[in-house]
User: What shape does this take?
Amino acid sequence: MGRVIAVANQKGGVAKTTTVASLGAAFVLRGLRVLLIDLDPQSSLTFSLGIDPDVVEYSISDVVRGEVDLSMARLRTSEGMDLVPSTIDLLAAEAMLLPAPQREFVVRRGLEEVLSTYDVILLDCSPSLGLLTLNALAAADEVIVPLQCEMLSHRGVGQLLDTVADVHRLLNPRLRVRGLLPTMYDKRSTHARAVLGDVKRRYRVPVLSPIPRSVKFAEAPSVGTSIIATSPSSSGARAYFRIADSLLRAWRFGGRKVAPTRPSRGAHSMHNPPPGEAGAL
Assistant: This one.
């Protein structure tokens, strides 16, 4: 049974897409069967992995509208992950869901047919707390929250954790917070170190190892791959390998899971290919 991980933050520009692509590629190189789903109408993950959203036959919007099964929308990327791409049509598909019954469970139902096919399924959420993000949280076993190490960047984290807690209570009791993931971290910056310290004190959830700031992250999408493929020995790639390996250790050896809680109110508020053979978790 595949483990479903939502990568979410309602703020844009915090490396959600980079995290999904990099962890996906790292998991593949660790021998896992990996599916990525682009749940952002901006299609950043789709573009980043070298796929033109304007020419795909099916996308996640077709799945959301109930026109095709999720398995029909899969594409194989050059790094060995499968991807369900996104297009701008996802905006209209989300609007169509608003009056629908059980509207928060469309993605979960779509995943049911492929859960046994993959070891890890990563959901790249849109930068909002809208219906698509709720669908991702309702479908996920865990959520990772990337945040940039700047004071304004993490102001919305408390609101997201409130939403995760509500989803856990009302829609998905399986949902756990795997951790906050500091990104674009410059250890030489006093401000970045102060923000990281503040995040660790403020929120009652784990904080994962920071991902360093690196120009290599910006270069990778230009060739349609993750940093794992373009610069595997870079500090950024090594950081994502460490995160991937820490997740695998936690999953295999019963690492601590943290149920969502309210944040502290302290001082500041290729079409349809079969997945590659790989060992299961």
Remarks:
- Residues 235-252 form the longest helix (18 residues).
- Confidence is low (pLDDT under 50) at residues 253-258, 262-281.
- The two ends are 9 Å apart (CA to CA).
